[in-house]
Design a protein that fits this description.
The protein has 154 residues and is of the alpha+beta class. Helix content is 51%, strand content 9%. The protein folds into 2 domains: 76 residues, Glutaredoxin; 64 residues, no CATH class.
Length: 154
Protein backbone atom coordinates (compact mmCIF):
# COMPACT_ATOMS: atom_id res chain seq x y z
CA UNK A 1 0.00 0.00 0.00
CA UNK A 2 1.03 3.60 -0.61
CA UNK A 3 0.14 6.53 1.62
CA UNK A 4 0.13 9.98 0.02
CA UNK A 5 1.09 12.40 2.74
CA UNK A 6 2.64 15.86 3.23
CA UNK A 7 5.10 17.24 5.76
CA UNK A 8 3.42 19.42 8.41
CA UNK A 9 -0.13 18.65 7.18
CA UNK A 10 -2.31 17.58 10.13
CA UNK A 11 -4.69 15.18 8.37
CA UNK A 12 -2.05 12.78 7.03
CA UNK A 13 -0.36 13.10 10.40
CA UNK A 14 -3.47 11.59 12.00
CA UNK A 15 -3.05 8.52 9.78
CA UNK A 16 0.68 8.35 10.60
CA UNK A 17 -0.15 8.41 14.33
CA UNK A 18 -2.71 5.67 13.78
CA UNK A 19 -0.09 3.54 11.99
CA UNK A 20 2.36 4.00 14.86
CA UNK A 21 -0.23 3.15 17.53
CA UNK A 22 -1.13 -0.01 15.62
CA UNK A 23 2.48 -0.96 14.82
CA UNK A 24 1.68 -1.13 11.11
CA UNK A 25 4.79 -1.06 8.93
CA UNK A 26 5.59 -1.64 5.28
CA UNK A 27 3.40 1.11 3.82
CA UNK A 28 5.24 3.17 1.20
CA UNK A 29 5.12 6.91 1.92
CA UNK A 30 4.75 9.39 -0.92
CA UNK A 31 5.34 12.97 0.15
CA UNK A 32 3.36 15.55 -1.79
CA UNK A 33 4.53 19.15 -2.25
CA UNK A 34 1.31 20.99 -1.39
CA UNK A 35 2.70 24.52 -1.73
CA UNK A 36 4.08 23.55 -5.13
CA UNK A 37 0.60 22.33 -6.14
CA UNK A 38 1.65 18.72 -6.78
CA UNK A 39 -1.69 17.50 -5.39
CA UNK A 40 -3.56 19.50 -8.02
CA UNK A 41 -1.86 17.82 -10.97
CA UNK A 42 -3.95 15.43 -13.10
CA UNK A 43 -2.01 12.35 -11.98
CA UNK A 44 -2.90 12.90 -8.33
CA UNK A 45 -6.43 14.19 -9.05
CA UNK A 46 -7.12 10.83 -10.66
CA UNK A 47 -6.47 9.30 -7.23
CA UNK A 48 -7.91 12.01 -5.01
CA UNK A 49 -10.42 14.12 -6.97
CA UNK A 50 -10.80 16.68 -4.16
CA UNK A 51 -7.02 17.28 -4.22
CA UNK A 52 -6.44 16.44 -0.58
CA UNK A 53 -4.00 14.34 1.40
CA UNK A 54 -4.01 11.78 2.88
CA UNK A 55 -4.90 9.16 0.29
CA UNK A 56 -4.18 5.47 0.65
CA UNK A 57 -3.62 3.44 -2.50
CA UNK A 58 -4.37 -0.25 -2.05
CA UNK A 59 -2.63 -3.18 -3.76
CA UNK A 60 -5.58 -3.62 -6.13
CA UNK A 61 -5.30 0.01 -7.31
CA UNK A 62 -8.27 1.39 -5.39
CA UNK A 63 -7.66 4.65 -3.56
CA UNK A 64 -9.37 5.63 -0.34
CA UNK A 65 -9.33 9.21 0.96
CA UNK A 66 -10.62 10.91 4.12
CA UNK A 67 -8.56 10.38 7.23
CA UNK A 68 -11.28 8.73 9.28
CA UNK A 69 -12.23 6.39 6.41
CA UNK A 70 -8.58 5.39 5.90
CA UNK A 71 -8.27 4.62 9.62
CA UNK A 72 -11.47 2.56 9.51
CA UNK A 73 -10.07 0.50 6.64
CA UNK A 74 -6.79 -0.03 8.49
CA UNK A 75 -8.64 -0.97 11.69
CA UNK A 76 -10.44 -3.69 9.72
CA UNK A 77 -7.25 -5.07 8.21
CA UNK A 78 -5.14 -4.75 11.37
CA UNK A 79 -7.63 -5.25 14.21
CA UNK A 80 -5.12 -5.28 17.09
CA UNK A 81 -4.58 -3.18 19.09
CA UNK A 82 -8.18 -2.09 18.82
CA UNK A 83 -8.46 1.69 18.48
CA UNK A 84 -12.06 2.13 17.36
CA UNK A 85 -14.09 0.18 19.88
CA UNK A 86 -15.05 -3.45 20.44
CA UNK A 87 -18.82 -3.01 20.32
CA UNK A 88 -21.41 -0.53 19.17
CA UNK A 89 -21.35 1.48 22.41
CA UNK A 90 -17.58 1.92 22.33
CA UNK A 91 -17.55 2.65 18.63
CA UNK A 92 -20.27 5.25 19.09
CA UNK A 93 -18.48 7.14 21.87
CA UNK A 94 -15.12 6.96 20.07
CA UNK A 95 -16.68 8.23 16.86
CA UNK A 96 -18.37 11.04 18.78
CA UNK A 97 -15.03 12.21 20.20
CA UNK A 98 -13.36 11.84 16.81
CA UNK A 99 -15.99 13.92 15.04
CA UNK A 100 -16.04 16.60 17.72
CA UNK A 101 -12.28 17.03 17.60
CA UNK A 102 -12.20 16.98 13.81
CA UNK A 103 -15.13 19.30 13.19
CA UNK A 104 -14.86 21.80 16.04
CA UNK A 105 -11.16 21.79 16.91
CA UNK A 106 -9.16 20.73 13.85
CA UNK A 107 -11.57 22.44 11.46
CA UNK A 108 -11.28 25.71 13.37
CA UNK A 109 -7.51 25.49 13.63
CA UNK A 110 -7.28 24.79 9.90
CA UNK A 111 -9.45 27.80 9.06
CA UNK A 112 -7.53 30.04 11.46
CA UNK A 113 -4.17 29.14 9.96
CA UNK A 114 -5.20 28.81 6.33
CA UNK A 115 -6.79 32.26 6.37
CA UNK A 116 -4.07 34.10 8.27
CA UNK A 117 -0.66 32.57 7.53
CA UNK A 118 1.25 33.87 4.49
CA UNK A 119 2.76 30.41 4.02
CA UNK A 120 -0.71 29.03 3.26
CA UNK A 121 -1.75 31.73 0.81
CA UNK A 122 -0.95 29.34 -2.03
CA UNK A 123 -3.55 26.89 -0.76
CA UNK A 124 -6.28 29.22 0.47
CA UNK A 125 -7.34 31.69 -2.19
CA UNK A 126 -8.70 34.18 -1.27
CA UNK A 127 -7.58 34.43 2.34
CA UNK A 128 -9.85 36.24 4.81
CA UNK A 129 -7.53 37.16 7.71
CA UNK A 130 -10.35 38.55 9.86
CA UNK A 131 -12.26 35.28 9.53
CA UNK A 132 -9.02 33.45 10.44
CA UNK A 133 -8.67 35.53 13.60
CA UNK A 134 -12.28 34.93 14.63
CA UNK A 135 -11.79 31.18 14.16
CA UNK A 136 -8.66 31.28 16.32
CA UNK A 137 -10.68 32.82 19.15
CA UNK A 138 -13.43 30.20 18.87
CA UNK A 139 -10.93 27.36 18.76
CA UNK A 140 -9.34 28.51 22.02
CA UNK A 141 -12.74 28.30 23.66
CA UNK A 142 -13.36 24.82 22.23
CA UNK A 143 -9.90 23.71 23.42
CA UNK A 144 -10.65 24.95 26.95
CA UNK A 145 -13.87 22.89 26.88
CA UNK A 146 -11.99 19.76 25.82
CA UNK A 147 -9.38 20.38 28.54
CA UNK A 148 -12.11 20.54 31.17
CA UNK A 149 -13.78 17.36 29.95
CA UNK A 150 -10.49 15.48 29.83
CA UNK A 151 -9.83 16.39 33.45
CA UNK A 152 -12.93 14.56 34.60
CA UNK A 153 -12.78 11.42 32.45
CA UNK A 154 -10.07 9.03 31.30
N1 LIG B 1 -11.55 15.78 5.30
C1 LIG B 1 -10.22 15.48 4.83
C2 LIG B 1 -9.37 16.74 4.94
C3 LIG B 1 -8.07 16.59 4.21
C4 LIG B 1 -7.32 17.90 4.11
O1 LIG B 1 -7.87 18.98 4.27
N2 LIG B 1 -6.01 17.79 3.83
C5 LIG B 1 -5.21 18.97 3.65
C6 LIG B 1 -3.89 18.78 4.39
S1 LIG B 1 -4.17 18.63 6.15
C7 LIG B 1 -4.92 19.15 2.17
O2 LIG B 1 -4.75 18.21 1.46
N3 LIG B 1 -4.87 20.41 1.73
C8 LIG B 1 -4.56 20.74 0.39
C9 LIG B 1 -5.40 21.86 -0.14
O3 LIG B 1 -6.31 22.30 0.58
O4 LIG B 1 -5.14 22.30 -1.25
C10 LIG B 1 -9.61 14.33 5.62
O5 LIG B 1 -10.05 14.11 6.76
O6 LIG B 1 -8.73 13.63 5.12
Amino acid sequence: MKLYTAHRAPSPRRVLMFLVEKNITGIEMVNMDLNGGEHRQPEYLAKSPLAKVPALELHDGRVITETRAICTLLEGRFPEPNLMGVDGDERGFIEMADRQVELYLLGGIANAIRHSHPGLAALEKPQFPEFGRSQAEKVREVARGFDQRLQSQP
